[in-house]
Amino acid sequence: MKILVINCGSSSLKYQLIDMANEDVMASGLVERIGIEGSKLTHKKDGEKFVTETEMKDHRVALKLVLDELLNKEHGAISDLKEINAVGHRVVHGGEKFNDSVVVDDKVLQEIKECFALAPLHNPANLMGIEAIQGLMPDVPNVVVFDTAFHQTMPEENYLYALPYEYYEKYKVRRYGFHGTSHNFVSKRAADMLGKKREDLRIITCHLGNGSSMAAVDHGKVIDTSMGLTPLEGVCMGTRCGDMDPAIVTFIMEKEGLSPKEMDNVMNKKSGVLALSGISSDFRDIEAEVGKNKRAEIALNQFANRVRKYIGAYATQMGGVDVIVFTAGVGENSIEMREQILSKLEFMGVKVDKEKNNVRGKEAIISTDDSKIIAMAIPTNEELMIARDTKRLTENK
Length: 397
Known about the structure:
With about 400 residues, the protein is α/β, with parallel strands linked by helices. It folds into two domains: about 1-145, Nucleotidyltransferase, domain 5; about 195-380, Nucleotidyltransferase, domain 5 (2-Layer Sandwich). The chain has helices at about 60-70, 105-115, 125-135, 155-160, 165-170, 180-195, 245-255, 260-270, 270-275, 285, 295-320, 330-335, 335-345, 355, 380-395; strands at about 1-10, 15-20, 25-30, 40-45, 50-55, 85-90, 100-105, 140-145, 200-205, 215-220, 220-225, 325, 365, 375. An eight-stranded mixed beta sheet has the order 5-4-3-2-1-6-8-7, sandwiched between helices. β10 (about 215-220) and β11 form a beta hairpin. The radius of gyration is 21 Å and the shape is globular. It catalyses: acetate + ATP = acetyl phosphate + ADP. This is Acetate kinase. Homodimer. Belongs to the acetokinase family.
């Protein structure tokens, strides 16, 4: 069974064609600047890159070019589109309607539209990708995998905000959480690596990158997560402020004469470790300045402190913790940040093995053999998770 995985942004899209017989990636690629001058498609096959620069006015044109690349006689991966059995799509927000992935029908499309207000930058683009594929491959089933779905097991006391209840009833203002596909994948993979069932473990997953979120996965179910109504809440991130006194918002708006949109831009695009360090939103650039720039150290220290704060909070909610998993750009690759976070958790029973922790982008247990809590680094694979869900929902239809 061959599955095409699509992840559409407003002006870009990523894709992978996966052979589910062995879960191998047959081809992958990135389309940039859709609807903008300088559109480009970079197709990858067997380690080689093939670049096409041409005008792409919309997602349908872009996806048509993707399909053409997959069919290309020289560097394609298939000889006929009929070889693609199903298409899996990432959709950021499923609201309260979806606690699992789902096969696309007219009702699902309408419900994705109804979540536009909750994810105005993402859901419309995700929907464009689905509709474009439906037009180009009308007989192939489509599956949507929601970033929010894995977190829908949270209890009310953790997803409701202490605001007038009418705002929840009228506007569905609540905690949703994001990166759910990643948290789902790495928590399951951690259990598999340990030869155990996820339902028997208390796992804290740390998706740490330019966007960061954490989740408490208690015996297979998420009971809490750090991102909220939007991906702005939680630990400080590359350019997002994370948790802060909400009164700061109106204070700065009044002092600076900012509109709601302008303030939103400050919190999402101009804050985080970029603002703290004054250097970059890239943790590698900031780490390179340690010892030379005090603000770089402040930024990294605050990030580590916030992550530890959530680990402690989630451990108390679950009555302990068995496994801590690090994933995403920083979590998978920053040896120093993993050690910095875990070094102050020895009182909980975590012991870092420096030799085992000396790894980037690979699966590894990074704690000592006698550590009471197992610490792990696991590269996330959201595309594979999407493909697996797509196979599960379509292979017998």
